[in-house]
Here is the input.
Amino acid sequence: MKEQLQNETAYTENVVLCGANSYEEKYFFNSEFNALPQSIKEELNIMCVLFTEEVGGILTMEFEEDGTLIFKSIADDYDYYYDEISAGLKIRQFQQTKKELLESLEMYYRVVYLGDQFTEE
Here is the structure.
């Protein structure tokens, strides 16, 4: 799990799992992942909305080509309330408190979408 803070939208080939936008007050969940249990989808919703309520900007959770789950935090250039430090701290908090969930999502993506073999560690 990595974090990536950006001040502007960048083109990406990552697969977006979910995200929230404080400017439009919207939450997005990629329907390709509808097979996930409802409780996980709800937890992702809470995480994304909580982030944008506390920090502002736009947060997306994306899978990189290798299956690594990253957080991307983006803010409009004129959003003077957005704080990159707070964004980074909130992402690290999620990475610590939701470590098991995030690692499980990475494993799910690698097995279901990338065809890796499941191995218990």
Remarks:
- Residues 5-9 have pLDDT under 50 and may be disordered.
- The first helix runs from residue 38 to 54.
